[in-house]
Amino acid sequence: MGVMTKTGDHGTTGVSGKRVEKDSLIIETLGVLDELQSSIILVQSENQLDRSTWESLTFDLVRFCSLLAGFEVKDFDALKRIEYLEGEIARCQDVFKGFVYPFDDVRNARLHWLRAIVRRAERQVVRLGKTQELPVGLSVYLNRLSDYVFTRMEFPMK
Fold first, then answer.
1. Where are the domains of the chain?
2. How much is the pTM?
3. If 0-12 CB within 10 Å is exposed, 13-18 middle and 19+ buried, where does residue 47 land?
4. 3-state helix, strand, coil in the chain (%, to 5)
């Protein structure tokens, strides 16, 4: 498959077996989720967080995007992934100290930024859900993901 297809030169792209405008709600949503995936990778790599965990979160989002784009995704149980996040939140919650602004702590500032991107993705998905059916669990997953990212901040702040 070539990278340069030129099929999008006139403002449309292919999704769900049809051409849609590049500024359509579905494409905007897929774009925000793509940005979220990239942000997770950046934050993980800069902060040297547990790669396997963050990698699995990234691939959860890849699977959700595939479902949104109309592809079949085998061996993906969104509800189990939500349960996984809930377990991780519970495990990390004992160090939770409330909402903070980590002005002097780059590691925590990156996580704070990532949490905001997750929340934007969640808002975008809610907007899309008003016009079409969403993959099972996508909104809930994003809600839990923002909580998870928040719990990954280290306390006390440096």
1. 21-93+101-151
2. 0.90
3. middle
4. 60, 5, 35
Q: Is the pLDDT of residue 79 over 90?
A: yes
Task: Report d(CA 118, CA 120) in Å as an integer.
Answer: 5
- Give the list of residues 6+ apart from residue 158 with CB closer than 8 angstroms, or none: 104, 105
> In the CATH hierarchy, which top-level class contains the domain 21-93+101-151?
mainly alpha
CA angle 28, 125, 67 (to 5 degrees): 85
> Are 143 and 122 a contacting pair, CB within 8 Å?
yes
Per-residue pLDDT at 97 exceeds 70? no
Integer Cα distance of 6 and 19 in angstroms: 13
Angle at 10 between CA 8 and CA 11, to 5 degrees: 70
